[in-house]
Amino acid sequence: MSIKFRLIVMNFLQFFVWGSWLITIGAYWFQNKHWPGDKFGIIFSTMGIASLFMPALTGIIADKFVNAEKLYGICHIGGAIVLFCLPMVADPSIFFWVILLNMMFYMPTISLSIAVAYSALKNKDKDIVKNYPPIRVWGTIGFIAALWTVSLMGFETSAYQFYVASVASLFLGIYAFTLPACPPKLAVTKSSSWVNVFGLNSFSLFKNKKMAMFFIFSMLLGAALQLTNAYGDTFLHDFANVEAYKNLTAVKYPAIIMSISQISETLFILAIPFFLRRFGIKQVMFFSMLAWVLRFGLFAYGNPGSGLWMIILSCIVYGMAFDFFNISGSLFVETQSDPAIRASAQGVFMMMTNGVGAVLGSTISGYVIQHFYTNAAGGKEWQSIWLAFAGYALVIAVLFVFLFKHEHKRGEDDSRKVTAH
């Protein structure tokens, strides 16, 4: 089998595991277990909490001690065991800790999968900017396939969704041991500094002003991603309380409408090589920020009736907002990092986006919405909420233009260049 096909299988299963339960866990929580709603929100905080330290920690281990593909496999096997045990949990408080344990296994696999893919492609002298996006797009297809699998099999409210995820995770964990070797490259000698000894070399990227600024804006955009994940589906569900909208398709099946975002991703992922080569990372990131402004702004004025086109367009725009930031960002980190810190550098990127950014985004937005955009009856003032989020994204975009300094030469291929720090 070709290296591209092997990496496609890895990416497909990587996000199939996540898609098997991420969107439908709410239905399991409320309709199967009938657990209190006030405790459900903390379930999604587990992704941010785990991302605060696990991707960076496993990146350090992969760079110094264990082959990245083997550590990747171990994490997925551990996750498979936890997912299999989830249906046995009968208490919502314990459920939180078990989900957190699962996230501690799963979240670092995202950055590890990137490190393994980049290593394998470069060892075959492949251009990662050209070859990785068409491989990564199969991850989004895997996520969509998982949604359809769980839905068509009638597992949306059932514990079987976790068994589907568990089987896929176990298979991927075993499969990972057959992937091309990605051995540690960060050697430790008697003369090594304490930074090298403890595997903190990747954090030296912050010494570079350009990279420090990049990571700060990655954190801020990570917060924006958390906003849409946390409130998008709830926003559509709330239209069920409006007589004119409650029987419309978009209100009855909001997950289907939101899945347009994943379909859009598949198209924008494939467009990344063209945009990166023509415009460079700064403009691509700027396009992502403008897309976030549109994403939130269209939600502000959309509705499931005459304004359904705005909601659909918002979901389409999401593909650019997410991919131009997330995937292009990982490619940029790769080109700016020494191969010896490949895994930990991707771990730092993951930590800043899905860790620090996600935790700050969910915490601050929750406080702001509760105190400024919730009416006396407890309802959410959605238009004001989305306009506030759009304003947030616009401010980030303006600051990014002036503060992030990176010069791109049109047509330049720097996918094989590495800058040591």
Specify the overall morphology.
globular
How confident is the prediction overall: mean pLDDT?
84
CATH fold type of the largest domain: Growth Hormone, Chain: A
Radius of gyration (Å)? 21 Å
Tally of strands: 0
Biggest sheet: strands, sense, closure?
none
Structural class assignment:
mainly alpha
Give start-end ranges of low-pLDDT stretches: 188-199, 411-421
Supply the CATH class of the largest domain: Mainly Alpha
Q: What is the succession of H and E elements?
A: HHHHHHHHHHHHHHHH
Describe the 3D structure.
This protein has 421 residues and is an all-alpha fold. Helices cover 72% and strands 0% of the residues. The chain contains 16 helices and no strands. It has helices spanning 3-19, 25-33, 41-51, 54-64, 68-85, 92-123, 128-152, 160-176, 194-197, 209-237, 249-252, 254-258, 260-301, 308-335, 342-372, 382-403. The chain is globular and about 60 Å long. 50% of the residues are buried.
Give the topology.
Layout: H1 3-19, H2 25-33, H3 41-51, H4 54-64, H5 68-85, H6 92-123, H7 128-152, H8 160-176, H9 194-197, H10 209-237, H11 249-252, H12 254-258, H13 260-301, H14 308-335, H15 342-372, H16 382-403
Helix pairs in contact: 1-6, 1-7, 1-8, 3-6, 3-15, 4-6, 4-15, 5-6, 5-8, 6-15, 7-13, 10-14, 10-15, 10-16, 13-14, 13-16, 14-15
